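Worked problem 6 (solution included).
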Amino acid sequence: MPSIPDEQSDSVSPDQICIDEDELLVVAQFDALRHQVPTLHMILLINITFLSFITSLGHINALTFLPSLLATLASSTRIMKWRREPFPGVDEARTMFRSTVRTSLIFGLILAGWSVHVLFTGSREVSAFVPFFAALSVISCAVCMVSLPYAAYAVIWSGAFPMVLAMLATRDMSLAAAAANLAIIAVLLIGWLRRQHQQFRGIVEAHALAIRNEREVTHMAFADQLTGLANRRALLTRLTERQRPEGQPLDTTVILLDLDGFKAVNDRLGHGVGDALLRAVADRLSQQVPPPALCARVGGDEFAILLPTGDREAVAAAAEHLSQLFATPVRIGADVIAIRGSIGISTGTHWPRDAVELMHRADLALYESKGLGLGHPFFFHPHLQQQRERRSIIETAHLDPAAVERLEVHFQPIVRTATDDIVGYEALARWHHPQIGVIPPDELFAVAEHARVAGRFTELILARAFAKASDWPSNLSLSVNVTAGEVGPGLCTMIRRMCERYAFSPKRLIVEITETALLRDPDAARSAIADLHAIGARVALDDFGSGFASIGYLRLIRFDLIKIDGGLVSSITTCALARQLLIGVVQLCRAIETPVVVEQVETEAQLDILRVLQVDKIQGYLLGRP
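Solution. The predicted structure is:
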């Protein structure tokens, strides 16, 4: 697997993926010369030895092989240097090449001088061997220098052509013919060397192209194409590379950051603006993270930071620094977007068995951070692991027939305050799972919505509720709850299909939604509510007064019923301010001519106050437990 950019580089831009072909050529030339130079010196030693022997026939003495001994000493030094020398770097290698060219030029001149000396001072029999040895030495050296053409040219020009001129100067026809032969061979050899070097260079260029393509593929494999940050694969690769044996001190932290409300930005302003927002967040992250960290985009609107430290204080400081990127809005063209996000952190004291476990832990912490909705960093703690296992069971429970069989629907009456008549019931889920025991409805749907399977549970609950409610008197309504994630194009289709299956009139149905659905995607919520009204179903705004955005939406969306959150009721018997708040909410609902249901009525004293206020309907444990 190709390695990802190391440590301080978050990403590699395509502009950085370049190969200097000249430098790669120097590397290839050096590698070729490491094998060619020793061969060249061996050829020279053999030729010098035999030429010394031939020129000394009849008077061999101690000095006969002195040139060979001197050449052996010089060649041994050069051979050892080239064989043992690692690549010294481009600049040093070029210096060695220039030295080799100079050495080749000097060698050619020495060879030519010696050959000319023998030619004019030796016997005719000896002189006949001079062209042969000269041509053989020059051609051999030139061929060995094919990867360094200037050195080969230097040998040919300094070694061959002075010999040609010397042989022509003897006015001997046989030597003149040999001179012409050597000159022609030298010219042809220069052309051959040029073509060979071009082929050599072509091979190097093809190798450079292959490396460039490999790096581009590596970049595409390890970089996020939209933001230029590292991607999930790069993050996991780096995390695996940092893995230490289980139990060793932890020196790595994973931070996950998720944008809240990004889907609404995409739907409202378009994917172009959404992409620009992701790039802007990526730029801010790159500026906020400390230099040794790796910053990556690991999902649609989810980012990760890999910190090479396990020190909790340092991690907390880094996370707090990261949270500052939400402090200022992002301007994209004419749009100003306030960004919110959640941050989950996985750190600790010891390495787990699998490095990827740090990612899972950070994801659990991120889940808790999103649940809190405060945008503050949340650190993983072991209790979250148990919660994860519990959530995992809940997420897949709809696939387990034995578990589904234990899912029950209970009904809590809704009573008209003025007459004490029951006007309807709210369907409430109660689930005693065979493995993990009682699962409260809030937990069930929070987990199911996060896993995008809430619709499966809602259908199960509707099926059981419709099956029972079909036998009720036609004047009794049925109220059902749906999660914020279900409030969209498919909600009305699903409800109409379920009503038809159980022959239940949509006019008897009240669909309760919370303000979270309005905040998440106002346009989708408005459209879904209009579709429900179109089939005759009524829509209630649930938990009114528990949040901060409901009042604004009362101007934009028509609700058939408003259910006042029990939090406004619990202290009305003991707190004057609580009573005034409740009075204000009730009067607001009357002003917009929308009926009210007050939830969680548990005492006679509370009921008396609500009757004085002439609240339309009430429900709670005082009137009937589900």
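Discussion: Residues 1-18 have pLDDT under 50 and may be disordered.
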